[in-house]
Amino acid sequence: MADDVIDPENAGDLQSQIEEVEALSSIYGDEWCVIDEASRIFCIKISNDLEEPKLTACLQIILPPDYPSAAPPIYQINAAWLRGPERAKLANSLEDLYVEHVGESILYLWVENIREFLVKKPKSSETVDQPERVNMTAEEDVDDEDLPDFRTLKLNTENAHLFLDHANDEDVPPIKHGNTITDRRSTFQPHLAPVVTPRQVKMVLEKLYENKKIASATHNIYAYRIFCEDKNSFLQDCEDDGETAAGGRLLHLLQILDVRNVMVVVSRWYGGILLGPDRFKHINNCARNILVEEGFTASMDESTRSGAKTKKPKSKKAK
């Protein structure tokens, strides 16, 4: 965010956001997750603590430039057990909280409201399984031991059969290569291709690995989302390639940006110096940059207008 041009009118909001994010990170620790700091995209895992069955929800948040002074956060709640009237009830309670506290930082109140909702959930609720941890990495023991896992990021192994070899009746999609980011001798480079079938995903990977430099990368992290019109749903998956949790974070970014029919691969050449959590920031920034450059984020504005739960206040309370 430091390199972006800040509108003077939003400088106060940005400072409020920075202070709020720092406070939430301190309060919630590893439950708080920075998805894309430059785009002000965050996520927090919320659970009903010691209640049984243990329920978990993931609150995804995008902070607009004029939050908190004039606009609410854009948000989405991911929880497999949350459907229909219950989802509407929870969404209405968050919107009511926002209207009651217009112009104020609202995220802590939202998180605790969702937690209270989980605690009050009937005991018959379905337990949400958490995905298994896979693919240890050289930096695993530095900061990944307690990284939050989100159910929406579970690898889609049930579709593995779609990757079996078929007749070569599809062309390799065009592959774009983005600008590199270098930090402490580690280099990150994104690659992007439009895909509409799992077979094309496999073809893109094979084509990339024909490049000796890409094949020699320490990690080639990827994620993709394919929209299935007949089922009105997404076929999506990700791969860490040894960089634990990186694939899931990358897929999470694609979900929040609401991109479709696209695959992003981020190559990392490790330079010998541990980057800690900064490596995830570079991976997602690389991905976001190439998605913007290639025009795949155009649908985001549409989705936030139609799908995100926001409510503009009729009047603004004096602070």
Rg, please? 20 Å
* Shape descriptor: globular
Main sheet, how many strands, which sense, barrel? 6 strands, antiparallel
| Structural class computed from helices and strand pairing | alpha+beta
Please name the CATH architecture of the largest domain.
2-Layer Sandwich
Number of H- or I-type helical stretches: 9
At the fourth level of CATH, the homologous superfamily of the largest domain is Impact, N-terminal domain
Q: Output mean pLDDT.
A: 76
Order of helices and strands: HEEEEHHHEEEHHEEHEHH
Would you report the number of β strands?
10
List the helices and strands and how they pair.
Blueprint: H1 11-28, E1 32-36, E2 41-47, E3 56-62, E4 74-78, H2 84-100, H3 107-120, H4 140-143, E5 176-177, E6 181-183, E7 186-194, H5 198-209, H6 212-215, E8 219-228, E9 233-239, H7 246-257, E10 262-269, H8 278-293, H9 298-306
Antiparallel strand pairs: 1-2, 2-3, 3-4, 5-7, 6-7, 7-10, 8-9, 8-10
Helix pairs in contact: 2-3, 7-8
Please tell me about this protein's structure.
The structure is a single chain. The chain has 319 residues and is α+β, with helices and mostly antiparallel strands. The protein has two domains: 8-126, Ubiquitin Conjugating Enzyme (Roll); 147-303, 2-Layer Sandwich (Ribosomal Protein S5, domain 2), CATH 3.30.230.30. 33% of the residues lie in helices and 20% in strands. The protein has helices at residues 11-28, 84-100, 107-120, 140-143, 198-209, 212-215, 246-257, 278-293, 298-306, and strands spanning 32-36, 41-47, 56-62, 74-78, 176-177, 181-183, 186-194, 219-228, 233-239, 262-269. The strands form two sheets. Strands 5, 6, 7, 8, 9 and 10 form a six-stranded antiparallel β-sheet that branches. Strands 1-2-3-4 form a four-stranded antiparallel β-sheet. A hairpin with a 2-residue loop joins strand 6 (181-183) and strand 7. Helix 2 (84-100) packs antiparallel against helix 3 and helix 7 (246-257) packs parallel to helix 8 (278-293). The longest helix has 18 residues, at 11-28. It starts with 10 loop residues before the first helix and ends in a 13-residue tail after the last helix. Mean pLDDT is 76; it is low at 1-5, 124-138, 140-169 and 299-319.
